[in-house]
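Record pair follows.
FIRST:
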Amino acid sequence: MSDRIRAVKGTRVLLPDEAERWAEVEAVARRVFGSYGFGEIRTPILEHTELFVRGVGESTDIVGKEMYSFTDRKGRQLSLRPEGTAPVVRALVEAGIGSWPLPQRFYYVGPYFRYEKPQKGRYRQFHQIGAEIVGDEGPLTDAELITMLMRFLGELGHADLEVLINTVGDVESRAAFRAALTAYLEPRREALSADSRRRLKTNPLRILDSKAERDAEVLDGAPRLEEHLSAASRAHFEAVVAALEAQGVAVSRRDSLVRGLDYYTRTVFEIVSAELGAQDSLVGGGRYDDLVAELGGPQIPAIGFAIGQDRLIETLPDDSPLGRDSGVDAMVVPIGEGSGTEALRLAEELRSAGLRILLDSPERGVGKSLKHADRCGIEWVILLGEDEIARREATLKELTGGEQVTVPRSELAGRLASAVDAASGVKERS
């Protein structure tokens, strides 16, 4: 017997019960984002490596250590997409967004790939839900995007949410701060962690986000980005915070929040939940006003976010309104070999009425069918034998209470729908 072929490390399979929960989360995203005027965009999984070198930044961990890249048969350097924003911007530039009415709003859902150590909530093939607003530089846009995220997370059942927010300034502000920070850290480089010593040459702002205790000690007394902000960047940030606070959103300013990608400008943010302990971040994002131009388009401002869908679903609260049923309303059980065709017809009638129906095999036998339905968490079973077929009836059986009643076929769909809705607390079936 040959050895089993296992899944590639860092990937996983979503079986139907888990996939159903994923679909529910995505449905909430589509509904909430759609109510804010966002439309879905789908980009290729495969892109030219240069897109991420230019867009994300050659000095970032993503490009430097984590991308799945290869040379194809014609010598082209290609990569599996490691993040969503650069592919969206590339696609919009190629489609000619400079001639479109602006702003435009997009959301996306899909798989991404990074070579990093797999751990709980983090995979090499991971999934993101993201959104971008392209063509509006106003602070109200930043506030609206964050407010939409708070609504989305709230509808999934998350509470005690807080927005951590900062500004990394415009290009001039960031350049001035980078020079001051580098000048402060260079004489202290040996006291830094290994990662921070490497970042001192490539991306010193990332050192501010270090969790290493020794780095925190070195950074005590370091220059602050706020001291190097231009007047325009400062005014933009203050307006974003004021707009969020006016909506009752809990906001906390964090000087150390810089995010990990080179394209960010001005507003950067994370949303955290006190329910999650030390690993409390649910989503992050920010403004990237120069990325469209960097990738060959006109100078168009933009802002966006990305949610790690794997971790989002793994951290859904116990009282989340999602995934509370088996996904099946009832099972039709044919009794006797001659009942199969009519049982199929009955199952189709009930499905046409909006019910979710599983059709069992007549070869299983009634007793085994009832046990199978119980193991699957199905509450209602419809028994259909020769007598019921002759009388144009069916027997509706509730497995939990054991009650069963004979119902005319013409009334079965309505009777079953009422029973299912009553059990789930739904007053009226849409």
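SECOND:
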Amino acid sequence: MRKRKSFWNRPGAAFLACAAAVLASAAAPVCAEEAPPDVKSVEEFSGELTTGQDVSNIVSFPFRMIAYAIYYPLKFILYDIWAWLWDLCFGSGEASESDYLGMLGEPDPARRIMGLRGLGGLKAASALDRMIDLFADPNDEVREEAVAAVGRIGSDSKSARLMDMAGGQSPWPVRASAILALGLLREKSATAMLMKTLEDPAWQIRCHALNALGAIGDTASGPAVSARLKDSEPLVRASAATALGNIGDPAGLPALLGVLDSIDKEGSAVRAYVVIAVGKLGGTAEAARIFAILKSPAFASDPVTRGTAAHVLGEMGYAAAEPELTAMLLSSRDDREISGAAQGLAMLGRLAPLVEAMKSESPYKRMAGALGAMRTRNPDALPHLLSLLSDPYSDVRRTAIIALLSLGSEEGVEALIGQLAASDLRMRAWALLSLQQISGKDFGLDAEAWLGWWRENADSTDLKSLFPEEPPRRKKLSRADRERSRAVWARAAREARAAG
């Protein structure tokens, strides 16, 4: 009998992915964990394309469309069909570990990625050396997948090799991959080495080292990380703020507040990450300072900072912000502000403004309201979510279904079955895939068969279990970590005074 895969290990948890994408956009408009390859091309995030980018996109559009029109049909004819026929005729079910290992040496990057994903899914510890070798792959996506696969498997025995790669003389992409892997493995013994790389001349390495230190969470790295808040590169400063928030040591709060005092001198990306980090470490007094930023006319044209601040104020439970967040949700025309306000209100437990948003003429506000209602876990939202199931926009219907499922509503599954006949082919495919993930069955697009299955299994299916509770926002440090933190920060202060 074929073993059924866990829901969370399946690639098709599409309805959760949709929710996560919209929720993430509210609080993290730019990912501090991603470092572009060319520092000269990095500008502070403003939320808008430059004139040059607009012109470039317009001019290059016909050529890109021609390239797509040629490439994909040729790939389908010359590769995809033959690969499918080969698998049909000679395939032997699920690939084995040796099959995936063979893929790692193939010239097609997509095949190497498939091999890495397969080995990661099998947790093939014996293949770790081969995976680590691909940290030097010329393809960016292959390197990223190799890092992810090593992180999924985990191995203390390979940490020494990763540390050698991270601190060696290899090109920065190879070193960055090793650093990211150490972060995924939460390798605490790498803390000292990573702290040294914070002085690396390559800003990309500094970024990745900060992200890894944040993931490891060793309080000993706090002073070194906070020093990077004064780095010359904006993405490094943003990553330093993120790392301090992830480490969770309140001793890093004064350094963050120092940046907050001159936040108008920073670009949107740095502002957003500093606000998020202060929200993780601060209390009511810090929430009041973030609220002042939200209300300040100086940031009226910065939707990234305003949307992030709205979200963070909700996370901090700052109830005084409710009127401002409600006004932002119902009157703003910027999706980042709308998302941030909706999530902030949801975390404050305010359903009424979210219901108003679900009645808006703006499809995006209807989606934001539905996702906010989902986050409240308030059953009073059910009738309002049900009204969105007939929305003319498929994305709104999809979001409403996600919210209904998260509330354990049987109507959510019935709505999924109804979408099997939707005119939008993507909606039909999404509904089918979601039903397959929930049930472990496959009745194709046969709505009657799905309804029969649901009538038999509705009482025994726990829909809420598909949406686990979010972890607590504030990280709790152990007594040993707090004592160590005090000693580390005191030593750093003495060294700073001695250095003048």
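COMMENT: The chain is about 65% helix and 0% strand.
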